[in-house]
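ok, trying the design again with the full structure, not the truncated one.
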């Protein structure tokens, strides 16, 4: 299901699909991948994810490394725990990924 959803997102939206992580990375407790997208598609992408996430948990946050993971996260599906101790107080925000400007399907 996670790989299928990732493929469907890339086909439908102008997003950047980050690397697949098969094991815990950073504060995340489970395998995960990152999707970076422009604010202009936030509403459409989030609504689509709400209807199509199946049993997956999805964390949505801007690029602030600590606050957005621990204080103000937006979850679709069941919220998961995290390991906030690996995030420093002064960590720099993540750089946004380059987006796919030519999706192959419409939303």
């Amino acid at each position: 299901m996670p790989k299928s959803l990732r493929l469907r997102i890339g086909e439908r939206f102008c997003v950047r699909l980050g690397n697949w992580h098969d094991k815990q990375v950073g504060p995340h407790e489970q395998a995960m991948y990152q999707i970076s997208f422009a604010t202009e598609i936030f509403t459409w992408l989030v609504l689509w994810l709400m209807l199509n996430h199946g049993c997956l948990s999805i964390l949505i946050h801007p690029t602030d490394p600590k606050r957005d993971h621990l204080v103000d996260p937006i979850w679709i599906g069941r919220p998961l725990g995290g390991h906030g101790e690996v995030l420093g107080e002064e960590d720099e925000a993540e750089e946004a990924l380059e987006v796919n400007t030519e999706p192959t399907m419409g939303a």
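Keeping the full-length input from now on. The helical segments are 2-12, 42-52, 67-70.
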